[in-house]
From TrEMBL:
InterPro entries: Class_I_gatase-like (IPR029062), PRibForGlyAmidine_synth_PurQ (IPR010075). This is Phosphoribosylformylglycinamidine synthase subunit PurQ. The lineage of its organism: Bacteria, Bacillati, Actinomycetota, Actinomycetes, Kitasatosporales. It comes from Streptomyces ruber. The keyword Nucleotide-binding applies. GO terms for molecular function: ATP binding; glutaminase activity; phosphoribosylformylglycinamidine synthase activity. The active site is at C87, H196, E198. Part of the FGAM synthase complex composed of 1 PurL, 1 PurQ and 2 PurS subunits. GO terms for cellular component: cytoplasm.
Length: 226
């Protein structure tokens, strides 16, 4: 029996179907989860996908963080369930305090959409084991509020503990401090990043590369071998 990976849909989610397809291409079973349901339907892992949940009112992810599904997800994540937050999902994870720091508007005050070069900094999380540390990949990026910020103490802690998962290369698209594109929690089961790996899983779409597929094969291997 294959692993079941839940994909949460909030009002304003854009990439839930793309994420479900990426999960399916990796060989796992995607399970649609609705934001109003506390029941996670016995999934083995959860992805919070990209979009503009609740229209980004107040702050990106600030309202979605209080959706009923998050009550169960926060509890399960703290107990070790793997959770991936992509773009708006990353914003929700910071608002829920499952990941430290915060997301602010891009420093140039414009929406940005581009193929982005990244370096894998941590290949030991639940979602990154099919990469190699130091590997350079290209993943599509699209955001308005993608600037990762934290106080110096938190940034130093993330660096010292190896919790910076991905870093922007060649060009910082949003002003994120220390070029941080994605981070992980201390246990390595919760990962958040601004670029969209679900848009880089087939050679005919997105960036024309499959650099995002290892996110989904990594978690499948972890769950199957658990």
């Amino acid at each position: 029996m294959t692993a079941r990976i839940g994909v949460v849909t909030f009002p304003g989610s854009l990439d839930d179907r793309d994420t479900q397809r990426a999960v399916r291409l990796a060989g796992a079973e995607p399970v649609a989860l609705w934001h109003k349901d506390k029941d996670l339907k016995q999934v083995d892992a959860v992805v919070l996908c990209g979009g503009f949940s609740y229209g980004d009112y107040l702050r990106a992810g600030a309202i979605a963080r209080f959706s009923p599904v998050m009550e169960t997800l926060i509890e399960q994540a703290k107990s070790g369930m793997p959770v991936l937050g992509i773009c708006n999902g990353f914003q929700i994870l910071t608002e829920a305090h499952l990941l430290p720091g915060a997301m602010l508007g891009n420093d140039h005050l414009h929406f940005i959409c581009r193929d982005q070069k990244l370096r894998v900094e941590n290949a030991d999380t639940s979602w990154t084991t099919d990469y190699e540390s130091g590997q350079e990949i290209h993943i599509p990026l699209k955001n308005m509020d993608g600037r990762y910020v934290a106080d110096e103490r938190t940034l130093d802690m993330l660096e010292a503990e190896g919790r910076v998962a991905f870093r922007y290369l060649d060009f910082n698209p949003n002003g994120s401090l220390r070029d941080i594109a994605g981070i992980t929690n201390e246990a390595g089961n919760v990962v958040g990043l601004m670029p969209h790996p679900e848009h880089a899983v087939e050679p005919l779409i997105g960036s024309g590369r499959t650099d995002g597929l290892p996110f989904f094969t990594s978690i499948l291997k972890k769950l199957v071998n658990a």
